[in-house]
Design brief:
Helix content is 79%, strand content 0%. By secondary structure, the protein is mainly α. The longest helix is centred in the middle third of the chain and has 31 residues, at 105-135. The protein is globular and about 45 Å long. The two termini are 23 Å apart. The chain crosses the membrane at residues 33-60, 81-102, 108-136, 148-167, 173-191.
């Protein structure tokens, strides 16, 4: 919901570190893969109820996810990098609620499953919109630096990380947080479905 407003601040904050890494030959792809490894380690920590280590690893994943784009803009973005970034992100987002489900299946399995299904809705509607928009040569003016067409919504990257942070800080309230965010993701999916229906219809703009 507020990703477009935060992107300029994020780019300004990460640019010095991105420049440092780029000058030492660190590629964007390496940062993407390292960030994903951190995300997998966060999943492992969640499975064992290690909330603080999991949170730190989640935040490291997000830091590296921001840095890979910043480094890519220095070296020159590639289609492979854009593909790798979004593909790894989708798996990372699903691993976090799965970790909670494994840690306490009786309490967390159902809300985690509902949340993951809602992620499928937001992710598939996002990627389907992007694929058709790319075919038509459309650009997203709100996200000019993204490697693919970026369709915004109520539940975006910032909101997702805020929710993951809340889950790690208040694991006893995981179910309430998961159901609440799943509802927001469901609404985002419905909005994107309508946007796609209108944007890609023969009578649409």
């Amino acid at each position: 919901m507020i990703d477009a407003r935060l992107l300029p601040l994020q780019r300004a904050a990460l640019q010095p570190l991105a420049g440092f890494l780029a000058r030492r030959g660190i590629s964007a792809d390496k940062l993407s893969i390292t960030g994903f490894v951190a995300g997998v380690c966060a999943f492992g920590a969640l499975c064992f109820g290690q909330w603080l280590p999991a949170l730190l690893l989640i935040l490291l994943n997000r830091l590296l996810d921001g840095l890979d784009g910043a480094v890519a803009r220095i070296h020159g973005p590639t289609d492979r990098g854009a593909y790798l970034d979004i593909a790894l992100d989708m798996v990372f987002y699903a691993l976090i609620p799965l970790g909670f489900a494994i840690q306490a299946p009786q309490d967390h399995a159902l809300p985690a499953a509902v949340l993951i299904v809602s992620f499928v809705g937001t992710g598939s509607s996002f990627l389907a919109f992007s694929a058709v928009a790319a075919k038509l040569g459309r650009k997203a003016p709100e996200f000019p630096t993204k490697g693919i067409y970026y369709a915004g919504g109520l539940a975006e990257g910032f909101e997702t990380i805020a929710v993951f942070t809340a889950m790690c800080l208040f694991p006893g309230h995981f179910a309430v947080i998961a159901y609440g965010f799943a509802a927001l993701c469901g609404l985002t999916t419905l909005i994107r479905w309508r946007q796609g229906w209108v944007a890609f219809s023969q009578d649409g703009p």
